Automatic annotation (TrEMBL):
The protein's name in its UniProt record: Uncharacterized protein
Transmembrane helix among keywords: yes
Keyword set, alphabetical order: Coiled coil, Membrane, Transmembrane, Transmembrane helix
Regions annotated as coiled coil: 48-95
Transmembrane stretches, start-end: 12-30
Length: 137
């Protein structure tokens, strides 16, 4: 045995009383009927435990409300961001269509100039005219 330590078997009553007190406190915390059996002390302990439970429930409700507020804020931000992205996408689509039109116009212009240059070269060759070489880019 450790020096200075007392034997638990000599203090058995203390252990049993401690266990009994813990059980009584736990039971009076859970049941109002049982708390009344222990008189004003049991009733006071039950009321104290009830106040603690109510305070914990109020805190949980406040936490839930705060989380809901944060979720609502995030949802609003996401909706706003989504609307902005939709507008940007619409603008990109309009620019893309405008660019397609410009590309089509340029392709048509190039083809018509190529056709004109081909016909001019043929006409010049028939007439014995030598055309200068086109500039290189």
């Amino acid at each position: 045995m450790f020096p200075g330590a007392s034997d638990v078997s000599q203090q058995g009553i203390v252990v049993y009383v401690t266990i009994a007190v813990v059980l009584v406190v736990a039971i009076t915390t859970a049941s109002e009927r049982i708390a009344k059996v222990f008189g004003p002390i049991g009733r006071a302990w039950f009321d104290f435990a009830k106040l603690r439970r109510e305070a914990a429930a109020a805190k949980r409700s406040a936490d839930v409300a705060e989380l809901q507020r944060q979720i609502d804020g995030l949802a609003d931000a996401l909706r706003s961001q989504s609307a902005r992205h939709e507008r940007q996408l619409g603008e990109v689509e309009l620019r893309r269509e405008a660019d397609r039109g410009e590309i089509q116009h340029l392709q048509t212009t190039v083809v018509s100039w190529e056709r004109w240059a081909y016909e001019a070269t043929i006409a010049a060759a028939r007439g014995g005219v030598t055309l200068p070489k086109p500039p290189s880019n």
